[in-house]
Amino acid sequence: MPKLKTWQLTAGSAVAGLALAAGAVAVSGPWDSGQRKAERDVAAAHDRTGGAHHEMPSRNPAEPAPAPSARSVLGTLGAPAVPPSKADRVKGALAPLFDAAALGRLRTASVVDATTGEPLFTRGERDAMTPASTVKIATAVAALSALGPDHRIPTTVLATADGTGVVLKGGGDPTLEKEGLRALAADTARALRDKGAGPVSLSYDTTLYTGPDIHPIGRNNENLARVTPLMVNEGRIDGTRSGIGDRSPDPAGDAARAFAAELRALGVGLTGDPSSAKAPADAEPVAKTLSAPLSALVERTLTHSDNDIAEALARQTAIAAGEEVSFAGAGKAVHDRLAGLDLPAADALTGARFADGSGLDRNDRVSASLLTALLTRAADPAHPELRPVLTGLPVAGFSGTLSTRYAADAPGTGLVRAKTGTLNGINTLAGTVVTQDGRLVAFAFLAGGTPARDPAQDALDALASKLAATG
C-alpha cells in the first residue's frame, strides 16, 4: 500500500455539489484509499495480533466517494493570528442558528481557532453539561497521553508451575477475535508439547478489573457488553462489529470456552470445563497476543462511537496511573491525566466528571470549552501522540456516525470532522472544520432538553456547516 502523502493545505474556491464534497475530503484528510492512517498502518504491518484490521464502514452508493489521497488536517497550523473581523463574521453567522428551538432549553458552544486558541464564538462555554458520546474525545486524549499511540493491550496464557493447568488472562482488549484465540491456542499447544505436559485444566482470569462489570445503564444492553478484561469481539453474539448488537451475558466465559475448543482441536487434553480463577503468582507466560495499536483503537472508538473500546481505553488509563481499574478509578485517572496536559483553557476542567469512558452515563459532565481545548491540544505539533483523536473523527457525509448526515451539497460535507453524541434529550457535536479561508477551527456544541433527536442533529449540523462556509 502506498505511503500516505501530505501536502500543505491551500485555500480554494468553493464548488457546489459532489465536486465540492469529493475535494473536501482531501482537505479534511488524512485518507489513503479510504482508510484512516493508523488503521492503514496496522494492515501494512499485518502481524499476528488479537486486534484485527478494522475496515471502514460500507459506504452508501449514493454518497460521494472519498478522494484517493489526503491533505493533512493540520495544514493550517502556523497561520497568523485571527483578524478581529473573522471573529465578528463567525459570531454573526452562528448566532441566529444557535437560537434554533430544536436545540432545547440548555445549550452551550465553544468555537476556537485551532492554531492560536483564540475564541471565535462562545455561549456558556464553561458550563459543564452531559456530553453523551463526545466524552469519548476526553477518554481518547487521556489514553493516548498516558500510554502513547503504539501501546497494545495483551491477552496472555500462563502455565502453572506444576504443569497441570493453564490460565487465560484478560488484559482488557475488547477487540480480541477468534483469529487471536486461535494463535494463542497454537502457541499454548506448542509450549505444552515442549514441556511434555499431559492433560491440563483451563481457567480464566478476569481479576484485572475491579468493581461492577455492569454499566449503570443496565445489563443486556445492546450498546455495551459487560465491562470485563476478557471477551471476544466485544461480547457480540450476532456477528456485528460496530453499533448496537446482541451481547453475551457472560463474555469472559464465552471467550474461555472458545479457547478450550481451539485447544482441543489441536489435540490438547483438558481435564474439564473452563472455570474462573486468578492465575497463581508463580504461573509463567507461555503465549500472548496483542491488540491493534492504541492509535487504531482510538480511531475506531471515535469513528464508530464504540462504547466497549471506550470503556477499555479508560481502564487502560487507570492501569497506567495505578488507580483502581473500575468505573470510579478510570474516571479519576482520565481527569488527572487531562489536568496534566496544560490545556489552553486554564479552567477547562472546572465541573468536569467522568462517570464512564463512553458517555452512556448521564452523570458525565464536561464543558464545551474543555472539548475544544482537547481538540486544540490534539492539533498541537508538540503533541503528535494525540493526532489519532483528529484522524479518528467521523467525516461529514462519508464515515462513521456522520456517514448518513449532511447532504452531498451541504457546505460541511467532507469538511466537518466531528464526534457525535446522542442520548434521549441530549444532542452534541464536537470536532474540527476547515473554513473557506483555510483555517482549522475546533468547535463544540452541546444541547440539553432537546425535544426531538433528528431536528436537534440537523440544527447542530447546520452550525458546523455554517462554520465551513464562513471565511
Automatic annotation (TrEMBL):
Highest taxon of source: Bacteria
Q: Which Pfam families match?
A: Peptidase_S13
SUPFAM superfamilies named in the record: beta-lactamase/transpeptidase-like
List the InterPro entries hit by this protein, alphabetically: Beta-lactam/transpept-like, Peptidase_S13
EC?
3.4.16.4, 3.4.21.-
Q: Does the keyword Ribosomal protein apply?
A: no
Q: Which UniProt keywords apply?
A: Carboxypeptidase, Hydrolase, Protease, Signal
Give the range the annotation lists for the signal sequence. 1-21
This chain belongs to the protein called D-alanyl-D-alanine carboxypeptidase/D-alanyl-D-alanine-endopeptidase (Penicillin-binding protein 4)
At the highest ranks, the source species' classification is: Bacteria, Bacillati, Actinomycetota, Actinomycetes, Kitasatosporales
